[in-house]
Design brief:
mainly alpha, two-stranded antiparallel sheet, 15 helices
């Protein structure tokens, strides 16, 4: 069965994600033009880590969530770009020597290796602020209340009670004398990874002014999906090659990071991820066949190899 994605007929999830990634990259290219003057180097660094790489999982979630409510593709693309900017900023900073100290990301040198540490810090800072500039623009939605809600949700997902807070917990776990238990690891991963994915799933419903029940269902879907995604990422770090991942692998165990894989072992972690995927799909029961790509996406997050 074909699925309509922004006027494009696609047969598979992979095709839909590739089409969406192309649209997102084209929109990012427009939203991050290189100006004249000295700040051009900053824009080059911003574009280097944002355009032309990654699965665009978060952006795809925005687009598919928005499609459930017939939101204009232009509006949905702007929100998809905003979340991809925040995600790129987080990766730039995560790769810095003071954080995870990585040399490769998405199969190419990390931002601070391609440019320098100070430029990488500024590129991350600028991408974060540009994301909120995009969300606040009238082109994103004619209703200011919708734009404010998107800004509020993304700020919460990315801040001290979200991604940044999760990063802090991750760093503390490396230094702790006692290992984290399953509940503590779950909370760490919810904040570090899950909150941005939850926002991505819910954003389309916000754009579409969806009924509270449907908005809640998409947010819950994103929450379960984010948890499964993080377990899958930890499994890949333990089992995939650097060539498959486009970055260094087997770093979590060496750094003493708290993961469900290290706590439960490979097989039990896989079972946990599969359970989360089924729970995520269950939150879509109230949606019709238009949500089929979202259902398939839940399986993709634990089947992927990068």
């Amino acid at each position: 069965m074909d699925h309509q994605t922004g006027g494009l007929s696609v047969h598979t999830l992979a095709e839909a994600m590739n089409e969406a990634a192309g649209e997102i990259d084209a929109a990012l290219d427009r939203l991050l033009p290189i100006p004249e003057g000295g700040e051009a180097r900053l824009y080059e660094a911003m574009r280097y880590s944002t355009i032309g790489g990654g699965k665009r999982l978060r952006g795809f979630l925005v687009l598919e969530g928005a499609r459930q409510f017939n939101v204009s593709r232009q509006a949905a693309l702007r929100v998809a770009c905003a979340i991809e900017m925040v995600h790129a900023y987080s990766l730039i900073h995560d790769d810095l020597p003071a954080m995870d100290d990585d040399d490769m990301r998405r199969g190419k040198p990390t931002n601070h290796k391609q440019f320098d540490e100070a430029t990488a810090i500024l590129a991350g800072d600028a991408l974060q602020t540009q994301a909120f500039h995009v969300l606040a623009g009238e082109e994103t939605h004619p209703d200011p209340a919708v734009r404010i809600e998107l800004v509020r949700l993304l700020a919460r997902a990315a801040g001290a009670r979200g991604m940044c807070g999760g990063q802090m917990l991750d760093m503390l776990a490396e230094q702790a004398e006692e290992p984290m238990n399953e509940a503590q690891i779950g909370r760490l991963q919810l904040l570090k990874t899950g909150k941005l994915i939850e926002f991505s799933a819910e954003a389309g419903a916000v754009l579409g002014k969806a009924p509270p029940a449907q908005r809640h269902s998409l947010a819950a879907y994103g929450r379960e999906l984010g948890a499964a995604f993080q377990i899958a990422d930890d499994l890949l770090d333990a089992t995939a090659s650097a060539e498959e991942m486009g970055k260094a692998t087997a770093k979590d165990a060496g750094a003493g990071k708290a993961t469900l894989v290290s706590l439960l072992g490979l097989e039990r972690a896989r079972i946990q991820a599969e359970r989360l995927v089924e729970q995520a799909r269950g939150h879509l029961d109230s949606f019709d066949s238009r949500a089929e790509l979202l259902r398939r996406l839940a399986g993709f997050v634990i089947e992927r190899r990068n």
